[in-house]
Amino acid sequence: MIIGLVIWSNKHLSNEFALTPGLAQPVGPLITVSDHPHSSQRQTILLTDVYLTQLTTWQWLIDQIHPPAHEEFVSLTQLTGGDVPASQLTANAYLQMFDSQNFAKVAAMRALGLHVGGIPIGATVNEIASDSPAASVLSVGDRVVAAQGKPIRNECDLVRAASRVGPGQRLSLMVQHVRISDTGVFGRYMPPKSVEVQVASVPAGAGPTGCPGNPSLVVSNPLGMFLEDATQWHFPVSVSINTARIGGPSAGLAMTLGIIDALSKTSITGTLKIAATGAIDPYGNVLDVGGVAEKTIAVENAGATVFLVPTQEFGVARSAASGGLKVIEVATIGQALRAIERLSGVKPEPISG
């Protein structure tokens, strides 16, 4: 499940979580642009999130008997999608936000006609199975840059390297470790360090990787990890976004619109207060998210009059909304900008200089 979340936890925990309405806050003040004229005080585009609370067994039982209003229950398996311990949930959510910020910068600057370059630089650890030998030497966010002495450009390179080493054998990796702060800030990647990981057998019934030459393997299952491509982006404008304690990728659309707004001569929303949810990819596609019913409540509580949501979540948001909130489905950043222009009468006009 993909959500934008603020994470809380308790003692005596179960593997059940509660989603409740979070905040809908202006994204403009969270954006900083270096050495470029911009406005960081515009407050008409709202980023929305949900609170994710890991329940104690007692809380879960009580909530089953007396379900609170505007609360949704999800399991650890629904959140992680696999055999991943709860201890990795926060780090994985912060990695998703780290990626989402970069994708938002790419999509926003390209929408404004700016050139953004990117080169593949390795495979990033997304999740590690609880019984994987890799768990003792690798962490979520670490970047693998070489295997058996050969460069790794992406996850498929690492899958191929693992497939050439027999089960039970050890694979030599060069890894750049990274520290993720308690608030989700990524530090600088450390110089590459040599580690070894034992290769496992591919599970029976493993699905395809999508990697040429290795159609029968689940991505990185021989290593007990799930991976993603690592890219070094080259931005023409230096932008940073402060999303302390917010994880997940679903703020992608709001951050993309916020960057476009900050780099435009006038606010692209006019006087409208517009909220948005949805993950974003580097190509400007708006992707599915979770927790939309709870986010709709947060959006209305913040006084927004328009809510942009992914196409897949349009029905959920419209059902949760009252009559005063206009819900609009969008599949791309282009559609989102056109919808805003129809409502506000303003077209993005990039600031030069």
Features:
353 residues, alpha+beta, Ribosomal Protein S5, domain 2, Pdz3 Domain, 2 domains, 6-stranded antiparallel sheet, 8 helices
What is the CATH domain class of the largest domain? Answer: Alpha Beta
β-sheet strand percentage: 25-35%
Unreliably modeled segments: 6-11, 215-219
Instruction: Report, as a whole number of angstroms, the end-to-end distance.
Output: 41 Å
Principal-axes geometry comes out as globular
CATH topological fold name of the largest domain: Ribosomal Protein S5, domain 2
Q: What CATH architecture of the largest domain would you give?
A: 2-Layer Sandwich
Helix content: 10-25%
Tally of individual helices: 8
Structural class: alpha+beta
Structural account:
There is one protein chain. With 353 residues, this protein is α+β, with helices and mostly antiparallel strands. It has 2 domains: 5-113 and 238-344, Ribosomal Protein S5, domain 2 (2-Layer Sandwich), CATH 3.30.230; 117-232, Pdz3 Domain. It is built from 8 helices and 18 strands. The strands form 4 sheets. Strands 1, 2, 4, 5, 13, 14, 17 and 18 form an 8-stranded mixed beta sheet that branches. Strands 6, 7, 8, 9, 10 and 11 form a 6-stranded antiparallel beta sheet that branches. Strand 17 (306-310), helix 7 and strand 18 form a beta-alpha-beta unit. Helix 3 (89-111) packs parallel to helix 5 (252-262) and helix 6 packs across helix 7. The longest helix has 23 residues, at 89-111. The two termini are 41 Å apart.
Q: Concise description?
A:
With 353 residues, this protein is of the alpha+beta class. The protein has 8 helices and 18 strands. It has 2 domains: 5-113 and 238-344, Ribosomal Protein S5, domain 2 (2-Layer Sandwich), CATH 3.30.230; 117-232, Pdz3 Domain.
